[in-house]
Design a protein that fits this description.
By secondary structure, the chain is mainly beta. 5% of the residues lie in helices and 58% in strands.
Length: 813
């Protein structure tokens, strides 16, 4: 009997301690019409859902307690209400129309909704601010699934990049407010041209795989869209200062007027960043500003954004040679004082959004990007003929003897044929166009028609600014000049149809036309004139099924086509076939589950490529990766994300990706310099690993609130081994690495200053030695005198910094 009473008592304690109830309700507008697809969440939990065909929502088995209920819907004011859940309750809510149109309308056309049938991650403004410690965008996104970052200078400032699912940034579609950011010719994005851009970003959505149709080039691993600052109705001022290792300093000032006369807003930011870098002489001197002005009406928005970035960085893009990596990890082969990259990029964006009626809205955007700059190099013993110059005839032996003290190798048969020189390679480009979308949402249908028309002109030319022997050159002798012109037109239509109470069907079709032309000679005096036309049709289909308010799943199939970039066309070795457009067939299957204190998501993907352009491990003459087509290849794997709050003060966020990245049949070619023109030694491989595609990538953030305002986080990152080329050769491999960072933050408030945030970030607390990237140039040659034959890997590595710190102070007024 005592045992039975004891068991009943334990059952009572369990039921009382973990009693659960249901929350139901209905969301309507001011006229009583049901709002379908309104977002409903319980703040500070993982509960979230959207309303049904009747505007109803339901949370089942919610642990009893107090919650903040938040409801949002485009075109309406947010609704927030505190509720106490002790028994089943019903909450009916009427949303009022917003007095101003929401900025979210600008990016709606290319974003995935909560019922989208693709794998995506949204990074909020709060997360951006927490991770913005002066380092570039790749390090702010470090904790998102399947992402691997790298830094030329080793410290996260200067030239940085990321890869997602093993795909390099040249083949990831990146947009700002729906406007393409990738350079139309090279397809690259250089964050060094946009210093501290993150301080003006509202949120970021990363779509892995093909994702939605968007503007610009197709996504072959992911697409990333940045939404810049949205309406802040109250005036504000912010000061952010960072100091840290390698003489790193960042200072940023932001000011906003708030909403003036309930219609106008102006905000601006200026930032300056300097760092010596981890690698020798790999300094960065960066500055940028952001200026935005907007008019908000009840049914329209007119906004102008102006962004500008200016950079000067010492070149570190060739890495550290294998022979010195163990003795001098910070070695830089460049010693000329002004071996620098100098570039300025300005962005002008003009937006107009109009809510035509309750169900229909229009978005138009005009954009113009101006980029101009050069990088300067010192070169030894260069042939005059390589620069379109004539050898200098000396003839007199006594004169030659007097000159021999300079360098005997420069003279031949009475001629000076070589010289030391300083050269500059210039880029002057203009990119402009129009993007548009029409969004329709009513009852069961959410549809969009959108697209863009863009034009690009890129001028590439080189000049000699000094030479030891001038030959027949003039001042600023120009030895090459070519122009790339590209037009890019696309139109897409997409529809999300709520087929049943819990089932949504998604369809998306894009047509894209590209005209690309190059005219002129390159820096090796080759005529690279050529023309290319591409026409692509990119279809996508998917479904989303809501099993319950706690779990859902999706399935999608997408086809994407993508054109080669400038480098693919002009980096061809003799006899190499012209690059082909690549095609991707992408299958995605995802599942999500969440409760109050726990969320879990998994995504299976299979990306099957035809003629994929893969990295070879080589770099071209400007430090960009060389690529080649492979006929058949695939990337397949699983991505897992989890968040858990076991107690109110402790939270653990983690994600992990396991993948296989294979080329089915690969022919490796190594240059043989015993012949001219050079020939290639070929070796065939079956099912080999794709370069720079680790099988395992994982990230973790364990956060604990010591007391109110005081938080400490352990941030961890694991990246599995990566091969530098596509042969899976163990001698050309990057080892796996496991990093741990520690961040301590304290937030306090005062009467004078609204918020004071102090934080210290200690990176790589275990002082792990690791390399995040590498390059290789393999070759055969023979010694003409002895006849001995040689082979070399010529590996260079990009080592990253050991233990280092960043101390940050943020003041908000």
């Amino acid at each position: 009997m005592k045992k039975l009473l004891f068991v009943n008592f334990l059952f009572f304690l369990f039921f009382f301690g973990f009693s659960q109830s249901n929350i139901t309700g209905k969301i309507t507008d001011e006229k009583g019409n049901a709002l379908i697809g309104a977002n409903v969440i319980l703040e500070n939990t993982f509960y979230g859902t959207s309303t049904s065909l009747e505007g109803k929502f339901r949370f089942i088995d919610v642990k009893n307690g107090d919650y903040n209920l938040l409801v949002s819907y485009l075109g309406y004011n947010e609704f927030r209400k505190k509720i106490s859940v002790l028994v089943d309750i019903s909450v009916d809510i009427t949303l009022s129309s917003s007095s101003v149109l929401s900025d979210e309308i600008v990016v709606k056309a290319i974003r995935i909704s909560s019922k989208g049938s693709s794998s995506y991650t949204k990074v909020s403004k709060q997360e951006i601010e927490e991770n913005n410690n002066g380092q570039d965008i790749p390090y702010i996104l470090e904790l998102t699934p399947s992402l691997v970052s790298s830094s030329d200078a080793g410290g996260g400032i200067g030239y940085t990049s990321f890869r997602i699912r093993g795909t390099d940034m040249n083949r990831i579609n990146i947009t700002v407010n729906g406007i393409p950011l990738n350079d139309p010719e090279s397809h690259g994005v250089w964050w060094v041209n946009m210093p501290d851009f993150a301080s003006s970003v509202e949120n970021i959505q990363i779509q892995r795989g093909v994702g939605n149709s968007t503007n610009g080039s197709s996504a072959f691993g992911a697409s990333v869209d940045f939404q810049t600052n949205s309406l802040n109705e109250k005036p504000y001022a912010k000061i952010n200062s960072v100091a840290g290792s390698f003489n790193t300093f960042k200072n940023s000032v932001s000011v906003g007027t708030g909403l003036i006369d309930n219609k106008f807003v102006v905000e601006t930011r200026f930032s300056k960043i300097k760092s010596d870098g981890y690698i020798d002489r790999a300094f960065s001197d960066l500055q940028s500003f952001y200026l935005s002005g907007a008019y908000y009406g009840k049914k329209s928005i007119f906004r102008i954004n102006l962004m500008s970035g200016k950079e000067k960085t010492y070149q570190a893009w060739w890495g550290v040679p294998e022979e010195v990596i163990d003795t001098n990890r910070t070695y830089n082969s460049y010693f000329y004082d002004n071996e620098t990259d100098n570039y300025q990029q300005d962005h002008l964006q003009v937006f107009y959004s109009k809510q035509i009626n309750q169900n229909l809205n229009l978005n138009l955007a005009l954009h113009y990007t101006k980029g101009e700059g050069y990088y300067e190099q010192f070169k030894e013993a260069k042939k005059f003929s390589d620069y379109g110059l004539e050898p200098i005839f000396v003839g007199n032996d006594s004169i030659i003897e007097n000159l021999m003290g300079i360098n005997p190798e420069y003279f031949e048969d009475g001629y000076i044929k070589r010289t030391d020189l300083i050269r500059r390679k210039y880029l002057d480009n203009d990119f402009y166009g129009l993007t548009y979308s029409v969004n329709y949402k009513k009852n069961l249908v959410d549809a969009t028609i959108g697209g863009s028309v863009n034009t690009y002109e890129g001028k590439h030319f080189g000049r000699l600014i000094w030479a030891q022997f001038a030959s027949n050159s003039s001042i600023n002798h120009e030895w090459y000049n070519n122009v790339g012109e590209k037009s890019d037109y696309n139109i897409f239509g997409k529809i999300n149809y709520q087929f049943a109470e819990k089932l949504n069907l998604y369809g998306d079709l894009q047509y894209r036309n590209i005209e690309y032309e190059i005219n002129g000679i390159d820096d090796d005096l080759r005529d690279i004139s050529q023309e290319h036309t591409f026409n692509f049709i990119n279809p996508k289909i998917g479904l989303f099924y809501e099993i319950s308010n706690k779990q859902n799943l999706f399935l999608s199939y997408s086809i994407a086509n993508r054109e080669p970039n400038r480098g693919n066309f002009i980096d061809l070795e003799p006899g190499q076939a012209e690059p082909k457009a690549e095609t991707l067939n992408d299958w995605e299957f995802g599942y999500k589950f969440h409760t109050k204190d726990f969320s879990f998501g998994s995504n299976l993907f299979y990306m099957n490529y035809k003629d994929q352009l893969v990295l070879t491990g080589q770099l071209n003459d400007v430090g960009n990766p060389v690529m080649e087509n492979v006929k058949e290849s695939f990337r397949s794997g699983i991505e897992i994300s989890m968040a858990w709050k076991p107690v109110s003060k402790l939270r653990w966020d983690m994600n992990a990706t396991y993948s296989q990245n294979k080329i089915l049949d690969y022919s490796d070619k190594v240059v043989d310099w015993d012949y001219w023109p050079p020939e290639y030694v070929s070796t065939d491989y079956e099912k080999t690993n794709i370069a720079f595609s680790p099988e395992i990538v994982a990230a973790s953030k364990l956060s604990y609130s010591i007391f109110k305002g005081m938080n400490v986080s352990l941030i961890s990152k694991y990246v599995g081994e990566q091969f530098v080329d596509n042969t899976s050769d163990e001698s050309r491999k990057l080892d796996s690495y496991f990093l741990n960072n520690l961040k301590i933050g304290y937030v306090l408030q005062s009467k004078l200053i609204e918020k004071i945030e102090i934080s210290v970030l200690i990176n790589n607390i275990l002082n792990v030695e690791y390399e995040s990237y590498a390059s290789v140039y393999r070759q055969y040659w023979s010694d003409w005198e002895t006849g001995d034959r040689y082979y070399s890997n010529n590996l260079t590595y990009f080592p990253q910094a050991g233990t280092n710190f960043l101390l940050s102070l943020k003041l908000s007024f």
